[in-house]
Amino acid sequence: MSELAEVTQFLAAREPWSLLPPGRVAHYARLAVGRYARRGSVILSAGDQPTAMFVVRSGVVEIVDAAGALVDHDEEGACFGQSSIIEQRPSRFTFTAVEDTLLWAFDRDVVGELVAIPEVRRYFTESRLADATRREPEGGPILQVPVRDMVTRDPIGIRTDATVGEAAQAMDDGRVSSILVLDGDRLAGILTDRDLRRVVARAVPPSTPLTEVMSHEPFTIGDDALALDVLLSLVEHRIHHLPVMAGDRVVGMVTSGDLMRLERSSPLYIVGDLARQSDVAGLARVMGRVPRLVDRLLRQDATAEDITRIVSRTTDALWQRLLDLAERRLGPPPVPYCWVALGSLARQEQALGSDQDHAMILHDDARPDHEPYFAELAEYVTTALAECGFPRCKGGAMATTPRWRRPLAGWLREFADWLAAPTSEAVLNSSIFFDMRPVYGDRSLADALQRRVLAATPSSSRFLGHLARHVNDTEVPIGFLRGFVVEKKGRHRDRLDIKLGGINPIVDIARVHALHRGLPQISTRARLLAVGQHGVDVANLLDAHEFLGYTRLQHQGRLVASGAEPDNFIAPDELSEFERRHLRDAFTIVAKAQTALTVTFQTQFIS
After folding, report:
1. How far is CA 486 from CA 8, 471, 507, 580, 584, in A?
2. φ, ψ of residue 56 in degrees (nearest 5)
3. Key word Nucleotide-binding present in the record (predicted)?
4. What are the angstrom distances between the C-alpha of 506 and each of 243, 436, 499?
């Protein structure tokens, strides 16, 4: 194989080159200049203005920030240097060859030519976002940026009876790349610069009604979401504009450009990097950085709620990429389906060391001959998740179990049976399956299931009574004289399970109260806040949940730092007196809430 053919083949298999027609890939392959970097040599220094974009052909490049802190490693196929060229600024990072490394360099003019191609420009937008979010540990975390704080101007809208020409003029006057189409106060659609390019390409007259060319029912995001949620939505739906909603009212717009300007911590980079991986090994490498992310967030004094939400959303991105890869491998699904998260991930409360909990809801048009496709898809994703550090669920609560991979009608019958006959299995399953959240696919299937279930639970008093009694079956690890009850023998001797004895009961209490009122919230904090509006005393439970969760994360962070596997078993003797005192208080709050639940649901009369 000639050198040109080898370069062309290498580039064609990787983004952004794979986004180009084959002939164009060969064109750019001719412009590649080989560079060799000996181990330990600096390729690009922080503060220098790069004269070329580099592509790693082989080897590893270490990236450190201006303070000397390790940021990441670039491996085969990675590009660097283009962000500084595009933004005409010095590099923020130093790139050093960790081992003997072969590079291909593309000069400034080539980068400019590439950026003129829309598909490549979108790819580089993600890369620039990733670059913008790499910074020293003391930088502010992205989780501190709610969407409402990203909105910097009032929404620019236009009536549904406007023409294409009027919309284009309004966009030009407002200097915006998109405009909201409003029917009164209701969002009817959106027109973007990409839509206008299609209009021009098809020679659509300016007098054409706007409703004929706009995007109907655009994806939106709530103003209480996080910047990380914005990125996940943009990547998942392959869009660049998101209207921001406060209830049913449009309050603004956020774009990929807004994300680039945040220049915050690394969760965005990890999520963006996951979306660019083409195999399981690459996804596993990216997920290997999550413990370091948790450590950084702990040092930034982020709350346990925010940290577990960040970890959960990162896992969402992993699942979405795996399911996308699975569909590319197996072909499109024979009928619509929804892949749902269960348990802690559904509640967006995932800590380190979690196993897998998931299921599939199939469309009712699913036939027996469709089963092999979905079985293979479930096995592919489950196996890949194990390779990425998520062990299989020992209880089998996974989509690989046929019972948890069924049409919507089958799920409705399953829940109806649980509510009607609350056996011990039904009560046990409630802790997993009543916490369900759509992650990928046709979300309307999960929404339909949730609506039906929540409509039935308030009147299922016997089932709720069994759930309440089950909550009280868990013994809080604190004795009569407020001493800690620890394991007496075995591997966890002199330790207590902070999840089993503290966090889980609060989760269960919140779930019982929410189901009792048919409330749609899934996360524990959201459920507690919602039931608090119905007269339930939740203030102390909210504080206890946050303290217990933060203490667990600190413990897991110390284990990971020492090279051990994260778990939930804490040694009280290793805590400070301040921590032990508050741990006792938290457990006492949980025990009192359990007692209150007994009174509310009269569990003494449950047989």
Report:
1. 62, 20, 22, 13, 13
2. -75, 115
3. no
4. 35, 17, 10
Residue 295 CA: distances (Å) to CA of 225, 227, 292, 355, 557: 23, 20, 5, 20, 6
Rounded Cα–Cα distance for residues 267 and 86 (Å): 23
Q: How far is CA 267 from the centre of its chain?
A: 9
How confident is the model at residue 300, as a pLDDT?
Answer: 67
Q: Is 209 inside any structural domain?
A: yes
**Paired strand residues for 191:** 179
Q: Which two tokens stand for residue 168?
A: 């284009």
Which of 459, 484, 503 is a domain's end point?
A: 459
Please list, residue by residue across 11-41, b when 16 or more beta carbons sit within 10 angstroms of its beta carbon and e when fewer do.
bbebbbbeebeeeebbebbeebeeeebeeee
What are the tens digits of pLDDT across the range 149-176?
778 778 889 999 999 999 999 988 887 8
d(CA 422, CA 8): 62
* Helix and strand totals (H; E) in the chain: 25, 21
Angle between helices 118-133 and 267-276 (to 10 degrees): 150
Shared domain for 436 and 476, answered yes or no, is: no
How far apart, in whole angstroms, are the C-alpha atoms of residue 69 and residue 125? 24
Instruction: Quote the CA–CA distance of 273 and 231 in Å, as a whole number.
Output: 11
SS3 162: coil
Residue with tokens 């550090």: 389
Domain range spanning residue 326? Answer: 267-459
DSSP state letter for 90: -
User: Is 308 within 8 Å of 271 (Cβ atoms)?
Assistant: no
* Structure tokens that stand for 408 in this block: 């919507």
Tens-digit pLDDT profile for residues 428-483: 777 789 999 999 999 999 999 999 999 999 999 889 988 888 888 888 998 866 68
* The token pair that represents 80 in the structure block: 């660097």
Q: In total, how many domains does the chain have?
A: 4
pTM for the full model? Answer: 0.63
pLDDT at 264: 36
